[in-house]
Every structure is written in structure tokens, then in C-alpha cells.
Amino acid sequence: EVQLVESGGGLVQPGGSLRLSCAASGFPLPFSMYTMSWVRQAPGKGLEWVSSIDTIFSTTYADSVRGRFTISRDNAKNTLYLQLNSLKTEDTAMYFCAEDTLRGQGTQVTVSS
Question: What does the pLDDT look like over 31-43, one tens digit per residue?
Fold first, then answer.
């Protein structure tokens, strides 16, 4: 069974930082062969793509997070990361890691003073 398990969310003040992790398991091919993404959903809003990292470590970002968030992966640990810096209140959302249409259960990030 393919599983994605996110962790690392929490409550942080504006300007603060968090590091999200996503542990992947059960993929039919090695984790390194999958493009992985982070998406988020703010309260009352639809799903928003945040960032992706492909099999050769090329990264892409939504305009809203470019320069503040950094996606990375450790293929030896089957783990995806998202470093969130300079957080803003509008970054408040449930964050999910994703492979194509598969998502984990999410981890909540709340940015508030």
C-alpha cells in the first residue's frame, strides 16, 4: 500500500520558519523515480500547488512562495521536505505531499501572531 505521511506543521508567528517532512512508503518503483510535490489548502479555498521536485532534483515553485520556500528530497530515506521561511498569515493552510493524484493526510501550518 502506497503511503505518504506528512509531519512538521504547527503554529508559528509571521516571519517564522517551519520544516515539513513527508515519509513515503509502498511505491512500486524506487522513490527516486517519482516527481514529488507539495500542495496546500487554505480554509474555505481550493487546493493550491506549492512546489515540485523531479527525479533529477529540478525544482519549481508557485509565485506566491518562490524565494521563501525550499523543496528537497532524500531518496535514501524516501523522504520529501519543504522548508518554509519568512512565513506570512496567508501561508496558513493544510499542507499535503503528493505524487500525481495521491496525497497524504496533511499537516496543518498556522501563521498567526
Answer: 999 999 999 999 9
